[in-house]
Hints:
mainly alpha; 184 residues
Amino acid sequence: MNRKLIFAAVRKMRGNKPFSDVEVRELDAAIDGAIALVAPGVRRIGPKGLALIKRFEGLRLNAYKCPADVATIGYGSTGPHVRMGMTITEAEAEKLLLDDLDRFERGVVNLAGTMTAGQFSALVAFAFNVGLGALGTSTLLKKHLAGDYDGAADQFARWNRAGPKVLAGLTTRRAAEANLYRGG
Length: 184
């Protein structure tokens, strides 16, 4: 599939307006989803998965502690680059999100084998929130790898806690991820 022709056609429909980094990534993801690429390094989260992450993570330009007591900024970015008191711009938040997603996309490709575009996006969104280590040892992944897709989808609901506390937001997020996994 010639991506340059697709991008040129879409750009023409938009009056030759240039694409933002996020728009390029979303268009790439839509193309990848349409042809269901599975090769490492070329899978991208689809627009529904990206929207799910943005919806549930929210955009916070000032560093804060998430319910798990982890320093977080932007669209849920964590790690040594995040310090309490830190402030970023919306453009920096978008860049952090794209950088973080690249790691989770590669991780899911390496862990989860063959999958549909919806399954891939749901697993990336899930891993973005709980981590690749948690996904890698989960019953959800074991059921997915065994081809028990209904059983795997049912496992999302079990991941609705921060510590011992059930969080309504996580319950809603897991239902959305399970729906996406099932093809929604």
